[in-house]
Amino acid sequence: MPAVINTVTKAAPTDNYAVVNDTDLLGSFRIVNTILERDAIVSNQRKQGMLVYVLADLHYYSLQAGLLAWTDLGTSLGGGGFAPAIVRDLYLVQDAATQTRMGGVANNVYITTQSVYNAANTLQLALGGTNRVNINVGNTLATVVGDLTLTANHNVNICWTGVSPYVSEIGNIIATNAAGGGFSIGLGVNAVRFSNMKVGNVSTNATGTTGNSGNFLIRGGSHNIFGNIDTSITNAANITGNGGTITYNVTTTAFVFFNNITTSSKATNTNAGQVTLDAQRITIGGITTAVNNSAGFIRLRNATCGNINMTNSSSTLGNSSLTLTGCTLSNIAVTIVGSIVGTPNVILKNNSISGNVSILNNGTGVTETDISENNSIVGTLTTNLAVKTTAKLSSFFKISNLGDNSTILNCVIDSSSSAGTSLNEIGTNCTIILTSINPESTSLSIDNSIPVIVTGTNSVFINGVGANVTVI
pLDDT tens-digit profile of 124-133? Predict the structure, then answer.
């Protein structure tokens, strides 16, 4: 091995090459792409106090004594009187041998979900303010590291970061409370961050006779997998409690999966929890929300979802109670028992629905529903909105891209605009039964090589109709 006997320099200051790579240095300063690359720095190049800048999160990290744990210095090294928030790292590993090898509890290394959260919470409260604590989860099994039971709201300044949702698992998060409201995971505008994590079932129920269930407000910049999310009221004797709100928002292309979501309440004067899920790739097993009052709604964008069951038993239902945009779904069932106000209550745009859609109003008030803009419904579309007593039925302005072999049953297709009502791109072998088509325009347009029989209507637009379509 050659020995270096003098300072290594370039032949000239303007030469366009480096003398040495940062990956060849002992300690000093290094730039890496990811946290994994930071943690993979070999031991004979580590030195207490060395700095690493991670491009994935744009944070600086300093190596602590013991040469294993890193301190997150934030996005700035300070200067000019600015003091960045302190960030600390804790580690969750699966076995005692790994814990010992990484320095043990003295180096913030833990082997259960409960113990690492408790330590992170103690540390964050000691740091105070918005100083953040990261829990870094390695290759773990939920059955080994166990569950997290909360006895207060989840600390919003504690973040969970795994290697991958396929290898970084924790058990269930139990945030229920029998002596009042359930505990929340995320409060107000402050979401709890999960990245590259697989989490078991999450429950925030108020299980006693009083109190609201806790909220589940999270965000994530990377992939996440969750089990069942239950923010419902579970005790029938709790006639004042509301279901907890569920909100997930991410603007990256990362995927998120939820199993089944339940936000129901028990009494007719209470609210089921709101559900707002907005991500570019999101999959949900199914959603059940019952006893919606004016505050309850479901809003999904770009989601793949199983069945949606939404039941309102109260006196009012707010605007845009069910809003689905750009989703792929199985079946949708909306049942309204109370009288309804607001326009529109159901908005379906650019969705692909492989099963049936049922929107039934069993109350006495006005319901306005807008199913428009390129929905494909393969199955039966059923509603009884036509029988409601109202001066203006704007049930459906437009039904577009109805799939082959579909049925429109007992619907009102009614437009309040001069543009009239249209049924566009109706598939083959479709049947339209007991459906009133009442636009305000005065002409009839049928674009179909095989005539379609339309009776009892003065003006209808039916464009791009497939073969063997029957209107009865």
Answer: 998 888 889 9
